[in-house]
């Protein structure tokens, strides 16, 4: 991630610094100067990190800050390590021992690189921990997390913040590409065992595979099933290189979509019919002139498969129709990670 990617973190951190952190308005320190992360948390105490997927490395910069009322007077060499114990406690609290398939998984060390020591220079109240990620081939049917902690030791020339959520950061990694996100599937028909009664499937979440591919779960299979990874349908988008948008048209891209089972179980017998297509349209919002609505629609979806794991007799599913993804994009923000209204 480029340096501009931290604007939002910087603005938040500046607000904190102006009100509670180091400045030159005091003659002596009013509080203890403590080192912590600036990692915004969601309701379940994790920090969701959205990064644009790339086939090469992806960078993320996590702010480290010094609290207090005086300017930091020393070069602070801040040690950052893994917080596996907090991740384990989080999983046990939220999912228990009976649903380990839903646990957040600690990212393997081969998937990231960061310096174990980051210096906050004298006269500064913040530094950036640069983390380099490699997402290639990672299976996002699992939730991947990098749990970090500001380490403390009597030999260090700083003290970490004692409160959980300040001295640690649970970074939930959710990369995106042009086609990932929550698709509306009210126009997607799902039938079981040749029934004429449609199953209700209002949305399908599409997860990153690579720069031009996503996967979603087949039929009405959802992310709560322990065996969900066996029902992943990979959708690869192939742009029509000869397509030239007409002047004034809202269509900006179109092409075909290849659907295939990624790692099916024996007997799934995933079959597609015809050729799926897609079109991308862009429209500016009438009430918010700087907001662009980008809609990706997949048409002509038609596939079938068997689910032999939920019952003694395999269930035959037929799926056909369309599904669409809308992104609201603030055109005044140059960085895509922050321009999209998630």
Structural notes for this entry:
The protein has two domains: 3-173, hypothetical protein (bacova_03559) (Immunoglobulin-like), CATH 2.60.40; 181-339, Beta Barrel (Lipocalin). 8% of the residues lie in helices and 40% in strands. The protein contains three helices and 20 strands. The chain has helices at residues 7-20, 84-94, 336-339, and strands at residues 35-37, 47-49, 58-66, 76-82, 104-106, 112-113, 117-120, 126-133, 143-150, 168-173, 181-184, 188-192, 203-210, 213-217, 232-239, 251-261, 271-272, 276-284, 291-307, 315-330. Strands 11, 12, 13, 14, 15, 16, 17, 18, 19 and 20 form a ten-stranded antiparallel sheet that branches. Strands 2, 4, 5, 7, 9 and 10 form a six-stranded mixed sheet that branches. The longest helix is centred in the N-terminal third of the chain and has 14 residues, at 7-20. The radius of gyration is 24 Å and the shape is globular. The model is unreliable at 1-21 and 26-30 (pLDDT under 50).
CATH C-level of the largest domain: Mainly Beta
Query: Roughly what is the average pLDDT, rounded to an integer?
Result: 89
Largest sheet: 10 strands, antiparallel
> In terms of structural class, how would the helical and strand content be classed?
mainly beta
Shape: globular
Q: Please state roughly what percent of the residues sit in beta strands, choosing from under 5%, 5-15%, 15-25%, 25-35%, 35-45% or over 45%.
A: 35-45%
Count of DSSP strands? 20
User: What is the level-2 CATH architecture name of the largest domain?
Assistant: Sandwich
Number of domains: 2
Specify the helix fraction band: under 10%
Instruction: Figure out the total of helices.
Output: 3
Poorly predicted regions: 1-21, 26-30
What's the SSE pattern?
Answer: HEEEEHEEEEEEEEEEEEEEEEH
